[in-house]
Model the fold of this input.
Amino acid sequence: MYANLYLMGLWLLQEVSWDLQSMWQAMGLLAKAVVVILFIMSAWSVGVMIDRWVTYSAARKQSRYFVQAVAGSLREGKLDDAIRVAERSKKSHIAKVVATGLSEFQASTGLSEQEVIEASQRGLERSVAIVHAELKRGLGGLATIGATAPFVGLFGTVVGIINAFKGIAAAKATGLSAVAGGIAEALVATALGLFVAVPAVWAYNYFAGKIESFDVEMDNSSKELINYFIMRRKK
Done:
């Protein structure tokens, strides 16, 4: 049995040229369309991965600088200096939230302590939601590619099997030479679908974990800032 399978494999290798150019030329229009779609999905997902990696790295780096720089300004009560530090750290997720909270606190003059705290808290919540949406940009498409790419590849597999049966009908024979082209299309489509989907799913899960940590940092910063406002109003 194993000897027969080995001989069949050798026959298939002899009948089909497995270099990329020959396989592309042997594909039908529909199979080529599937391959092009998968390559577009792959290029888009790689672009999102690079963009999110650069964005998150910059956010992490600038946030470290901002936390150290703004702590001194807040201890000394210099809110204007703290806002200027936040404005210089435009890529920091924490800086964006803190800058909004400080601006709301400064703008709430003439209000009671409770009203000032509530206004600042609402501003912080809005800022956290906006920054969260900015950080999450592109990840929905990445998840969609990870979920749908295998099915696009499966469609290409079905097309290849159909072409294999067409080859049998055209050659009026059931040898491997009649189905080799269709099988090649099916295997290429399946492999490409998995090649596109697996990195997209991995990247989505990795970036989703990053966003969760950013959310925790922004929530903690918001609560600490509210506590700071309460202590400052009591002085």
Remarks:
- The chain is about 90% helix and 0% strand.
